[in-house]
Design brief:
Order of helices and strands: EEEEHEEHEHEHEEE
Shape: globular
Number of domains: 1
Strand order of the largest sheet: 4-1-6-5-9
Radius of gyration: 16 Å
CATH class: Alpha Beta
Number of helices: 4
Structural class: alpha/beta
Number of strands: 11
Largest sheet: 5 strands, mixed
CATH superfamily: Nucleoside Triphosphate Pyrophosphohydrolase
CATH architecture: Alpha-Beta Complex
Distance between the termini: 18 Å
Strand content: 35-45%
């Protein structure tokens, strides 16, 4: 018997925090989605009702890393992606994500403001250099970012924002987790 999932639409703001050594901050997760399942998550998350992309990005960076930034320090949206993901068989989230790029001095993230689910999911905060990111790019949620970062690190601001391919996953009752190429569930 198959479960009919609840579909939630969500707007997200994400921030690519890059330090002076061109390392990007990502949250690492291992075993949260299943034994041996490993991935990285970009800082950011869903907007609160009535919140702008900039305000949501600033709030998420502070909650997830302890870093306080001003909304006007973010600059323009450099990339966007859209697609479906789920972390349970009864829920599908259709997410539209906007990415900001922000160069910051290296810092150690303070993770004491994480939500309980984030504490369980994010096993570490890691700064990945260009080569490390290129090797792990297929594991970055919700979309690969290595090619985008190559350009914006050099100072190029894409106008209009770059469209990133969606790379997250969905629950499939027959096979457990599967890539979102099977995301036809949203077309129902």
């Amino acid at each position: 018997m198959s479960i009919e999932p609840r579909i939630v639409r969500r707007r997200c703001a994400r921030v690519l925090l890059v330090d002076e050594d061109d390392r990007v901050l990502l949250f690492h997760s291992r075993d949260y989605m299943g034994p041996g399942v490993e991935y990285y998550v970009t800082p950011g998350g869903g907007l609160d009702p009535g919140e702008t992309l900039e305000a949501g990005a600033v709030r998420e960076v502070f909650e997830e890393t302890g870093l306080e930034v001003a909304p006007d320090s973010l600059g323009p949206v450099v990339a966007e992606t859209e697609g479906a993901w789920s972390d349970a068989p009864d829920l599908v989230v259709h997410s539209r994500d906007a990415y900001f790029f922000l160069r910051v001095p290296h810092f150690e993230p303070v993770r004491d403001r994480l939500e309980e689910v984030e504490r369980q999911e994010f096993t570490a905060a890691r700064w990945l250099g260009p080569a490390e990111l290129a090797a792990a790019d297929g594991l970055v949620f919700p979309a690969p970012i290595a090619c985008l970062l190559k350009g914006v690190r050099a100072g190029a601001e894409p106008v209009p924002p770059v469209r990133l391919p969606w790379g997250a996953w969905l629950w499939d009752a027959d096979r457990d987790w599967t890539p979102t190429e099977r995301a036809a569930i949203l077309d129902r």
